[in-house]
Amino acid sequence: MNPAVAQQRIAELRAQIAHHDELYYRHAKPEIGDRDYDRIKAELAELEDQFPEFAVESSPTRRVGDDRLEGFQTYRHRQPMQSLDNTYSEAELRAFHARLVKLFGKEDLAYVVEPKIDGLAVSVTYEQGKLVRAVTRGNGEEGDDITANAKTIRTLPHELTAVKGCAFPDAIEIRGEIYFTTAEFQRINAEREEAGEALYANPRNLAAGTIKQLDTKEVAKRKLEIVLYGVGFCEPAIAESQTQFHELVKAWGLPTVERAWPAKGVDEVWAAVCELDKLRHSFRYGTDGAVVKLDSFRLQREAGRTSKAPRWAIAYKFEPERAETRINAITVQVGRTGVLTPVAELEPVQLSGTTVARATLHNRDEIERKDIRVGDYVLVEKAGEIIPAVIEVNVKRRAPECHPYKFPEVCPECGTAVVQYEGEVALRCPNASCPAQVRRRLGHFVSKAALDIDGLGIAMIDELVTRGWVKELPDIFKLRREDLLTLGKDVAKSTDNLLAAIDASKRTELWRVIHGLGIPHVGVAAAKDLAAHFRDLEKLAEAKVEDFIVKKETTIPGIGEVMARAIVGFFNEPRNRALVADLLRAGVQPTAPAKREAAAQNALFAGKTFVLTGTLPTLTRDEAGAMIEAAGGKVSGSVSKKTSYVLAGGEAGSKLEKAQQLGVPVIDEAEFRRMLAT
Ligand code: IVH
To answer: What does the alpha-carbon distance between residue 639 and residue 654 come to, in Å, rounded to a whole number?
Structure first.
């Protein structure tokens, strides 16, 4: 390659990497898999090696990505937070060992092999055993302060357990990973599916998206987990090896890797990596590789590091599992809100321990982009991704009779012409009475997380909709016994049970009905918040945007602006207003939760309004706000005569002055804590 072409290609690759870094680190929405990303980086590294005149310090081959976002305070790590070099081959793993053998002049170097957890990197600081800070990697030098969000992680102790004969270090930055278990990932995605929201492709994206939420209360609703696997900065030193560090971390009560393999020499390292590969499918969380580390901290220091990664450790990444199989058919499903989703019906194939027979094709654009056709052989992958994806078509195996796929122009269920709303990728069936939509809406309405009606499974719902007995949700309360009895022999008992369950559901909890309506974005947690606030279905249906948002601030805990607009938009539809009226007419009388205000009347800060200003010594505003609300108080943004207290920290400005002018009591954090302790 001549230098001019190389220079051009290097610029292209850097631009591609910058684009993918932005999506991965800042938006947690990567377009390509890790393997493809690593390939682009490897090509760039090779070109920079060949043409050192174009290698610059700022190249992505020499620095880590950057996850910092607007809205967070940044914090400088006391010791830079590096990344790891990746490899996918045994030969490269052996070459890593050979370099260290050359450096230290001995073969049987002691290593530790650990699972590589697929989450996002975090640095947690404890001072004298007390948790003081959690920070993301950021650009390696400084990251976003996510302390308030990290404190919602139930397994992260705010104070370490004392260990006999071992004083706490003055300060220690412990490195680790924040992640979701597979089960929690699936729970959240199921909730999103019910709320008609886009699904997260893998737990890593969800973890990154969650920890970077600005609203700590939203973070607390999800069960994030953390694992700690390394020392960044420590004063004074507390361990001499990774093995000792693991023991100490465990004794302090911190969650650490569930297994670490000691290994002498590269053959034992490889054996451990292979064992981990076999075991990893039984872990509660996704593991995308093994991390191999020199055990001795002294040898680690001697091996040193490059600007991006240590020379004493390497990540061996497992190949994402892929398999080739045939697309037997493409079916198009109609969702609750009419969205058409194409699904590849596959020749069943074994992948990551499960049989895969279907894969989502997302939408029409995706099929066109990959030119996926019925009869094609395709590569299916399940990597960190839990939902199988079609990666690419094996065009060499394409039969001549395979024609481009033509996306239906009419709804496959009701024949209505499909539409595409402005700004949306999805195609929709606009007919709200489409039987497929009714079936889905009804399925959701009676599901466990909504009215929870026993005896109304998919088959029964199909019958009710096909026979035309149920066209809208309230129709289930109008079902006639004599009609149901015609559904088969010996159905008297099950019919009576079903009718009794339907009748009982009329007095279910309000949040179940709200969730069951299928308002976009409204999952179980939001439905509970709405029920607690409005306490009446009609009041919710009549709410205006101003009832949710005042002066650009949302007024109902847990309900953000997007959701507020979706709720108001939903009830602006005459069809949905009629639905509520019909439900009430059919005798649905949901019970409201015990009054929050009543419960809070005796609370310490009941009726009190606080204004927060300045920087508090140990609490963030979110934390102080959450403590006030938990004690029944309210937090307001501006000081008035009605303000009960101004909670002021360092560098408080005009709010403090105003409080003094109006004679509003001003308290500091210590006083605030004393009040809470009473
Ligand atoms: S050690 C100096 N150990 O994987 C870097 N990293 O792809 C020390 N990771 O940046 C990192 N599990 O965010 C280490 N057991 C483990 C890990 C681990 C996951 C992450 C970490 C790292 C990335 C590299």
So the answer is: 10
Per DSSP, 315 falls in state: E
Cα-Cα-Cα-Cα dihedral of 15, 17, 19, 23, to 10°?
A: -170
Ligand 1 first shell, C-beta below 6 A: 82-84, 114, 116-117, 121, 175, 177, 229-230, 257, 291, 310, 313, 315
Give the whole-number percent of the chain exceeding pLDDT 90.
Answer: 55
Can you name the residues that pair with 263 across neighbouring β-strands? 111
CA–centroid distance, residue 28 to ligand 1 (Å): 18
* Rg of the chain in Å (alpha carbons): 29
The edge-to-edge listing of strands for the beta sheet with 86-87 is: 86-87, 313-317, 287-294, 110-117, 261-264
Query: Closest by alpha carbon to 332, among 374, 371, 378, 393?
Result: 374
- Mean pLDDT of the chain, nearest integer: 89
Residue nearest to atom 15 of ligand 1 (CA): 116
CA distance linking residue 491 with residue 265, whole number of Å: 70
pLDDT digits (tens, 9 = 90+) for 621-652: 777 877 777 677 788 888 988 899 999 888 88
pLDDT at 194: 62
∠ CA 465-470-474, nearest 5°, is: 145
The structure tokens 């190249």 sit at 59
Cα–Cα distance for residue pair 639/658, rounded to 1 Å: 7
Mutate to test the pocket of ligand 1, among 24, 86, 116, 294 (most ligand atoms within 8 A of CB): 116
Q: What is the mean pLDDT of residues 336-359?
A: 87
pLDDT at 593: 83
* 370 a catalytic residue: no
The answer to whether 9 touches 47, Cβ cutoff 8 Å, is yes
Q: Which of 229, 243, 307, 311 to mutate for ligand 1's pocket (most ligand atoms within 8 Å of CB)?
A: 229
Q: Which amino acid is at 446?
A: V
Q: Residue 222 contacts by C-beta under 8 Å, 6 or more apart in sequence?
A: 180, 184, 188, 210
User: Which one-letter amino acid corresponds to residue 64?
Assistant: V
One of 41, 102, 106, 116 is an active-site residue; which one? 116
Task: Tally Cβ neighbours within 10 Å of residue 174.
Answer: 25
Give nearest CA residue, ligand 1 atom 12.
Answer: 116
Residue 515: what are its φ and ψ, rounded to 5°? -65, -40
Q: Tally the C-alpha atoms within 13 A of residue 73's C-alpha that lie toward its C-beta.
A: 14
User: How far apart are the C-alpha atoms of 495 and 579, rounded to whole Å?
Assistant: 25
Contact 146, 212 (CB under 8 A): yes
Report, as an integer, the average pLDDT of 211-239. 90
* CA atoms of 209 and 582, how far apart (whole Å): 39
Q: Encode pLDDT of 308-329 as tens digits.
A: 899 999 999 998 778 999 999 9
DSSP state of 320: P
Could you tell me the distance, in angstroms and rounded to a whole number, from the CA of residue 84 to the centre of ligand 1? 6
Number of H helices, E strands in the chain: 25, 22
Those residues whose C-beta lies under 8 Å from the C-beta of residue 677, and which sit 6 or more positions away, are none
CB 384 within 8 A of CB 288: yes
Of all protein residues, whose CA lies closest to atom 4 belonging to ligand 1? 116
Q: How many CB atoms lie within 10 A of CB 246?
A: 19
Ordered by where they begin, the domains of the chain are 3-54 (1.10.287.610), 74-317 (3.30.470.30), 322-397 (2.40.50.140), 435-505 (1.10.150.20), 510-596 (1.10.150.20), 601-677 (3.40.50.10190)
